[in-house]
Amino acid sequence: MDQQTNLPSIGIVSVGKLGNLIPRVVAANIQGILDVPVSIIGEIEIPEETFILERRQYDAGLMLKILEEVSTNHFCILGVTYVDLCIPVFTYVFGEAQLGGRTAIVSTYRLQRGELGETISESVFYERVVKVALHEIGHVFSLYHCENEYCLMRFSSKLGALDSLPILFCDRCLFLLKRLIRS
Ligand SMILES: [Zn+2]
Ligand SMILES: [Zn+2]
């Protein structure tokens, strides 16, 4: 499918054993909302060098660099992982991306429970993963954060804020995104 179109394609790779369902749900939603070809590349092991011993977390920035090597055929590579990601200035991140680069990553680690550790429904969990994935892909396509409270490019560091977002970009961000995808 990727070869039959001139549109850039997005490749999804599991970082660690994640099962098939999460990558498939993410792929279907990206394809549906952004109207771009999406393929599931497969799985890589969790790169040991990304583990930060003193934080007991994984270096999101280094993960992004490693993902660059996974495929050269895709305009954008999205990693999906279950390990806890961090960057130097934040205690954790739901996901991370190279702004205007090629790679993005989303972690399910902080998305599988409520803010107080309570159980959440599967549908809320999948919605969260999809929202973070789309947000990070927006960054790969050079989008910055958006102030619109009904837009996926709004910055959310807390689950409550993430849950209140619809799985939609505002008109402006969607317009920019589709234009950047086709440029
Ligand atoms: Zn962001
Ligand atoms: Zn927006």
Could you describe the 3D structure shown?
Helix 1 (21-34) crosses helix 3. This protein has one domain (2-182): Collagenase (Catalytic Domain) (3-Layer(aba) Sandwich), CATH 3.40.390.10. The strands form two sheets. It has a five-stranded mixed sheet with strand order 2-1-5-9-8, sandwiched between helices. The protein has helices at 21-34, 60-68, 122-140, 159-164, 171-182; strands spanning 10-15, 38-44, 51-52, 57-59, 76-81, 85-87, 90-93, 95-97, 103-107. It has 183 residues and is of the alpha/beta class.
How would the blueprint of this fold be written?
Layout: E1 10-15, H1 21-34, E2 38-44, E3 51-52, E4 57-59, H2 60-68, E5 76-81, E6 85-87, E7 90-93, E8 95-97, E9 103-107, H3 122-140, H4 159-164, H5 171-182
The structure holds zinc ion (2 copies).
Residues 146, 148, 151, 153, 169-170, 172-173 line the site of one zinc ion.
CATH fold-level label: Collagenase (Catalytic Domain)
> Could you name the CATH class?
Alpha Beta
Number of helices: 5
User: Which structural class fits the helix and strand makeup?
Assistant: alpha/beta
Helix content: 25-40%
Q: Please outline the major beta sheet.
A: 5 strands, mixed
User: What kind of assembly state do the chains in view correspond to?
Assistant: single chain
Overall radius of gyration:
15 Å
- Terminus-to-terminus distance: 19 Å
